[in-house]
């Protein structure tokens, strides 16, 4: 946006974080932007499921006759399961989609953690050597706790939403402490990071103990003496510049293995088994469902469904004629009332069965 002249200061970039009743604000921003050729950012659209159909209509309405520079950017979290997919198909089909895949493996996670900072960050503290060493250690700690999730209960008893925000806040706290004190307050830093910044997410006592143990191993006086290894075969680097740290990760980090997390190699068996099963299940689901190869075969899945469908439609009884039944009832005893209610319900059910079977038949055709 900045490169093309769209900023908040120019008044031509509108940013709306949805949820908490911001839908009206979003609609107003879209109307103005469509006329003036502004950009609109709608964040977290997954939080407003009921409003999404209105958004779809609004976008359709503005797709014609709007200013040529009008653009809409939307963001959403991935749905945890297929049933939770709430974004209308129209929005998905008409969008250019970009997904942000979480990195896998300690190598990618460590690079990503370091990407949150820059050369300027490394130079901002007066105690430069201490600040750089502990910052790199925190990046490694963040990569380990984030990627440990893949080992399931062997990694963490429960899954926690550790984010880059926890890392950047921890680095800010580190900077403030080092600026205020000539000595490195190791105990204070371990407590703040392990019990508050990251520990704030942790609800299990054993997981909290694990987090504390990591920090006791990583953040201690030996780190300044060049004697600390973050993992077997991976010593803590000395005082380097920003690009030097990235290069050091590429050159010195051992290949991916449970040892990098302080785990036994057997921890990987369960994780790899799960991944293999998921891959094979997906491959099987992609296979064509046709069993009509051998002699006496029953035909494809579609033919079987068609045969069942026709059989059900034949068996399906006609709906009760409620007017006739009502006329026959002389005295509305409790039994008669319940019987009539059940007949009405049965009619609704029969109509739904007939409608859905007819729809399925059309689908097969």
From TrEMBL:
GO MF annotation, one: dynein intermediate chain binding
Task: Please state what the protein is called.
Answer: DYH9 protein
Query: Which top-rank group of organisms is this from?
Result: Eukaryota
- In this protein, which residues make up the domain named Dynein heavy chain AAA lid? 131-267
Q: Name one GO biological process term.
A: microtubule-based movement
Tell me the ranges covered by the Dynein heavy chain region D6 P-loop domain, including all copies: 10-99
- N-terminal signal peptide: none
A UniProt-annotated Pfam family? AAA_lid_11
Q: Which GO terms describe its cellular component?
A: dynein complex
Alphabetical list of PANTHER family matching this protein: DYNEIN AXONEMAL HEAVY CHAIN 17-RELATED, DYNEIN HEAVY CHAIN 1, AXONEMAL-LIKE PROTEIN
Q: Which InterPro entries match?
A: AAA_lid_11, AAA_lid_11_sf, DHC, Dynein_C, Dynein_heavy_D6_P-loop, P-loop_NTPase
- Its source organism is Poecile atricapillus
Q: Which residues form the Dynein heavy chain C-terminal domain?
A: 273-365
């Amino acid at each position: 946006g900045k490169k093309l002249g769209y900023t908040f200061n120019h008044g031509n970039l509108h940013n709306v974080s949805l949820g908490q009743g911001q839908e009206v604000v979003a609609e107003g921003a879209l109307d103005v932007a469509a006329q003036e050729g502004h950009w609109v950012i709608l964040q977290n659209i997954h939080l407003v499921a009921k409003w999404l159909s209105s958004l779809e209509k609004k976008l359709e309405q503005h797709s014609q006759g709007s200013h040529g520079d009008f653009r809409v950017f939307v963001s959403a979290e991935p749905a945890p399961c297929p049933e939770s997919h709430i974004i209308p198909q129209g929005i998905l089909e008409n969008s250019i989609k970009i997904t942000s895949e979480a990195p896998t493996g300690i190598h990618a996670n460590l690079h990503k953690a370091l990407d949150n900072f820059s050369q300027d960050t490394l130079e901002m503290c007066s105690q430069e050597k201490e600040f750089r060493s502990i910052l790199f250690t925190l990046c490694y700690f963040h990569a380990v706790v984030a990627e440990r999730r893949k080992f399931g209960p062997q990694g963490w008893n429960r899954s926690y939403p550790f984010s880059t925000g926890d890392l950047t806040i921890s680095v800010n706290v580190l900077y403030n402490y080092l600026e205020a004190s000539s000595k490195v307050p190791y105990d204070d830093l371990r407590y703040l990071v392990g019990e508050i910044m990251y520990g704030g997410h942790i609800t299990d006592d054993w997981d909290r103990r694990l987090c504390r143990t990591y920090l006791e191993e990583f953040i201690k006086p030996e780190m300044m003496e060049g004697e600390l290894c973050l993992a077997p075969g991976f010593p803590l680097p000395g005082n380097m510049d920003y690009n030097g740290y990235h290069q050091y990760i590429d050159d010195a980090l051992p290949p991916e293995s449970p040892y990098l997390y302080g785990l036994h190699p057997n921890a990987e068996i369960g994780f790899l088994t799960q991944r293999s099963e998921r891959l094979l299940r997906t491959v099987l689901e992609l296979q064509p469902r046709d069993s009509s190869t051998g002699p006496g075969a029953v035909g494809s899945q579609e033919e079987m469904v068609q045969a069942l469908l026709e059989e059900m439609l034949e068996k399906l009884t006609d709906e009760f004629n409620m007017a006739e039944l009502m006329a026959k009832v002389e005295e509305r005893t409790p039994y008669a009332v319940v019987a009539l209610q059940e007949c009405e319900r049965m009619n609704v059910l029969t109509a739904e069965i007939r409608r859905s079977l007819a729809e399925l038949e059309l689908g097969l055709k």
